Amino acid sequence: MLNEDSRQLSYILEQLKGLEQLVGAFVNISRLETGLRKFLYHLLSSQYWLYIAMIMGYNQAIDKRKAGVLMKILVLLRHGQSEWNLENRFTGWKDVDLSPKGIEEAKSAGKVLKEEGYDFDIAYTSYLQRAIHTLQLALEEMGRIDLPVIKSWKLNERHYGALQGLNKTETAQKYGEEQVHIWRRSFDVQPPALKPNDERNPALQDLYHGINASELPLTESLKDTIARVIPYYEQEILPQINAGKRVAIAAHGNSLRALIMYFEQLSEEEITKVNVPTGIPLVYEFTDDGKMHKKFYLGDQDAIEAKMKAVVAQGKAK
């Protein structure tokens, strides 16, 4: 980082030499008219003011680094609307793709990231197509299809067990809204588990070939999801952030809620009220010592609020 700073400063100072020469011409009385014309010409047509701004920004960055408040950036992105989100089904580990709306959400996420000046050195995503596809579309919009991407099943959505594939509204009508709310939003209650011979068991699917079957769930609570997401984050992703890498994670509502709870040190009660909208970049800024400084969603805040409310309404009997 310091070598990069030195190179940038050397470049800026080299550019400022031209400005110094022009000022010298300007103050030379015998050449006042010529010097003035040259100075004004270059003042209007060159980028000297930009160089001055750059060196001012450089000094501010050094001051921030000395104060220990240089920000590390992490961007979280929930996949765009999936085909089963559209049909209001419990999805879990079912490998469905994006809906047409989800495709547009993913592209919009990439556009806003580019417009706001974000770029990445590495990205992480799950084994599930809806998250992978979202990341691909966003990176295409950013012109960064060359970005290294690491996939891990440990970033998968929470496994919804025997609920996977069921319509949420119909399930609420059958079991009651309160029970569905407990299955969806409680911290440590698991939905009914799959039977080991169920074709939905990930241990029976080619996608998870080579992974120890004992590690693969038949159902999960949010607590269980946290137990696989956070160790992976600490062991694989956090070292990249600490090394100064700009990181993006494209994942799922509950695997991202696991990270949000961890970053913000939320209680079990507080995390039940957190809803992550589809296709909206969530930016976290951390100080150099790893403390969360602030977070914010990129995009229209009213639209984001409406998406959050829509997530809450999914488990109602209507």
From TrEMBL:
Record-marked site positions (Transition state stabilizer): 252
NCBIfam families found in the cross-reference section: pgm_1 (TIGR01258), PRK14115.1 (NF010713)
Family, per entry: Belongs to the phosphoglycerate mutase family. BPG-dependent PGAM subfamily.
Pathway info: Carbohydrate degradation; glycolysis; pyruvate from D-glyceraldehyde 3-phosphate: step 3/5
Annotated HAMAP family: PGAM_GpmA
Catalytically driven reaction(s): (2R)-2-phosphoglycerate = (2R)-3-phosphoglycerate
Protein name listed in UniProt: 2,3-bisphosphoglycerate-dependent phosphoglycerate mutase
Organism phylogeny: Bacteria, Bacillati, Bacillota, Clostridia, Lachnospirales
GO molecular function: phosphoglycerate mutase activity
Functional description taken from the UniProt entry: Catalyzes the interconversion of 2-phosphoglycerate and 3-phosphoglycerate.
Binding-site residues for substrate, renumbered to this chain: 78-85, 91-92, 130, 157-160, 168, 184-185, 253-254
Origin superkingdom: Bacteria
E.C. code: 5.4.2.11
Pfam families (UniProt xref): His_Phos_1
Keywords, ordered alphabetically: Gluconeogenesis, Glycolysis, Isomerase
Active site: 79 (tele-phosphohistidine intermediate), 157 (proton donor/acceptor)
GO biological process, one term: glycolytic process
